[in-house]
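lol ok so funny story. i was supposed to be doing the assay writeup but got distracted and ended up predicting the structure for this chain instead. priorities right. anyway since i did it might as well share w the group, maybe its usefull for someone
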Amino acid sequence: MIKCLVELGSQYYSTGYIKEAKLLMEQVLDEVDENAPTFIIAMNYLTLLSTALCEFETAERYYRTAREVIDGSSDYRRQAAGALIDIPYTYTLFIKGELEQARRLNEKVLKTLIELNIKISLPMVYSQRSVLSFFSGGYDKGVEYAAKGIEICDKMFLSDNQKGWVYLAWAQNCLGLEKLDKAAELIHRAVEHFEDPGNRWGLANAWDCLHKVYLAQGKIEPARRLLNRAIHVIDGCGLLSTEGTLGNSLAGLLMIEKYFSKALDCLERLFKKEIPKKPPGLKISLLGRFKLTIGNQDIPSSRWKSSKALMILKYLAANRQKGFIPREVLIEMLWPDDDIRKTGSRFNMAMSVLRKTLQPQLAPKKASAYIERKKDTYRLNGDITISIDAEHFSESLKSAKVVKNNLQKALERYLLAESFYQGPFLEEAPYEEWCMEKRARFASDYLMILKAIEAIYDEQKDNESTALYSQKILKADPFDENSLRKLMTLHAGSGNLTELKKMYMHHIKAAEEMDCPVSAEITEMYKRLT
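and the output, tada:
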């Protein structure tokens, strides 16, 4: 299943369907373990694709998440995977206009890949190096880097989109050197590599470059046709940065033709076509009592006019890692005993209330910024900043396990995970069936975290902190005899027999209430210590 998603997502990317590719790679991320190689592949694509769509915050988030996982890996994986995720991030920096940072990162990546003998990604790195040289005016160097990239492609028999981008970078530098015939030849080679899979993104960039060659040759009409073709091929793709490049090219062409008014209109449309401003982020608390914050505003319970609408939000937040949730699943969760054919209208009403609660000014039939719909499936919008404590809890726990051999780093991450646990999962809904399994899992993970922290403090001979976490463990699980024995020993060692006796009597009372016998070992230990 995961392999099919990766291959399909890669195919969508290769054909220029960037939004669709991103959606599929997000599904891969939901299915794969972060220690698997596929995780880095998906993060690599998502950083690149988010940048292509000018979703820079999303690209930064994917990059940071990947880096956190990579930094806790073995030395070779840290270097190799780190270099691979830095390749799309170099593109992110470039598109944002941070050229010097992009250049330094590109240089670092190239050095690492050569040292580790990872050749498969070298053509793209040389392509980036060539493009960066072009924008700094180093055309000769740009040609040199691109030629090196093509040489590697030929040695490895690579003949895909990657080679097309290298040819295009080479052509740009030839254009800068005014070697127009050579530039045109290289662009045609790039087009051959983009046309086979139907890469609309690559074709648009290639035709834009060729239109500049034609302009330099005085071929105005062919230049106009090519530019219009480039604009048309990416229409509706959401490639804002490429649309901006082509819009600027169109304004330049109109000025050459002395259509100054039209050129000005084109530029005005271009500047008005801002990257859509994202609505305020959501902060959702699921551990303990539910809490929702939109931007800096806490949403009071009085604002929820429908308990079903609220439950939909809770379910989507708790299951965000699953991606789109089918409508039937949500209906079954809300009305498990009712005929699904009779609950459709009720679901539509609840969903409408949810959309209005999150965005009171939302116009009828306008798409919600927070709830994304695809046919009859729903999810929280993946491009909005949404902070969910349960996710942070699980991510911090995973991160701690990755660095378990480094006690101080592991302790820091276990403590961070603990800070997110403010109580049982959705404790206000103790009888909701779908919550029970998750509640038990989070409680189990929380207890495991407490035990890990207790063990680290114990190894560090920090008796005060060990005692504190032994108490927390016993509060979560009164029958944890290991922590009970540890705490009894610590109290006895500090001469606090009063606290020791109090704790033992509390244990007896709890055992009686649960009709459980007190361990003979605990009783014997109590007698010996007192």
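The first helix runs from residue 2 to 14. The first strand starts at residue 282 and ends at 285.
back to the writeup now i swear
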